[in-house]
From TrEMBL:
Protein source organism: Puccinia graminis f. sp. tritici
Protein name per its UniProtKB record: DNA-directed RNA polymerase
Molecular function GO terms recorded: DNA binding; DNA-directed RNA polymerase activity; ribonucleoside binding
EC code: 2.7.7.6
Region Disordered: start-end pairs: 155-179
Family listed: Belongs to the RNA polymerase beta chain family.
Biological process, per Gene Ontology: DNA-templated transcription
Gene Ontology CC annotations of this record: DNA-directed RNA polymerase complex
Length: 210
């Protein structure tokens, strides 16, 4: 259990998933050595105490102790997942439950995660496990819904002719967009739906892609 606490804390600080593959480490490259290196980057000792940093103040607030304890974690490990918190069916358009969530994250929970320096948990709970999606963003104009396509010479003009030189599933961008380069971004599905609704009403939404 203590090793699991260390692994979870290291993954939350660096924003990476921990590898639990058995027999991956050996006597020369131990798991403890890897954890110590990851903790040293954050100025945290793996032995007894760790340091909590206040985000609002930007400095260390107090030191906390890590000890071995017994805790029934079966319900605790799945109680905060979105599969448990959703009520009702999930809308295919917005990927959100039609009856809301049983335990939504309000301002207090969000501020608590940010104050502990674990913003990756907030991203994982609100987007990665909810309505994670990818989209193309134009770096030149910042638009999300229109990138411009090249018209192929082999494209038929009749209503029944749908032949094209491009293979199925291939997206052709215009030459001006190719120079700037479209960027693939990670966005929430609800945000993409909101942008589409605002664009339909004539409100332009431009994103800054780097």
């Amino acid at each position: 259990m203590l090793s699991r606490v260390w692994l979870g804390k290291a993954g939350a600080m660096h924003g990476i998933a921990q590898d639990a593959t058995p027999f991956r480490f050996n006597e020369q490259d131990t798991r403890r050595h890897t954890l110590e290196n990851s903790f040293e980057q954050r100025a945290i000792t793996i032995t007894v105490t760790s340091r909590c940093i206040a985000v609002s103040l930007g400095r260390s607030s107090r030191r906390t102790s890590i000890s071995v304890g017994l805790l029934p974690t079966t319900r605790h490990m799945v109680g905060d997942k979105w599969q448990v918190r959703t009520t009702g069916k999930v809308d295919k358009l917005t990927r959100q439950p039609v009856k809301g969530r049983r335990d939504p994250i309000w301002g207090d929970g969000r501020d608590a995660l940010l104050a502990h320096g674990t913003s990756f948990l907030l991203q994982d709970r609100l987007m990665n496990c909810s309505d994670y999606s990818t989209a193309w963003i134009c770096k030149r104009c910042g638009l999300l819904s229109s990138l411009g396509y090249d018209t192929s010479d082999d494209l038929g003009l009749g209503p029944t002719s749908q032949t094209s030189s491009s293979p199925p599933g291939r997206t052709e961008f215009s030459s001006s967009v190719k120079m700037r380069g479209p960027r693939g971004g990670i966005l929430s599905t609800v945000f993409r739906y909101l942008v589409a609704e605002l664009m339909a009403m004539g409100i332009k939404i431009a994103l800054q892609a780097e």
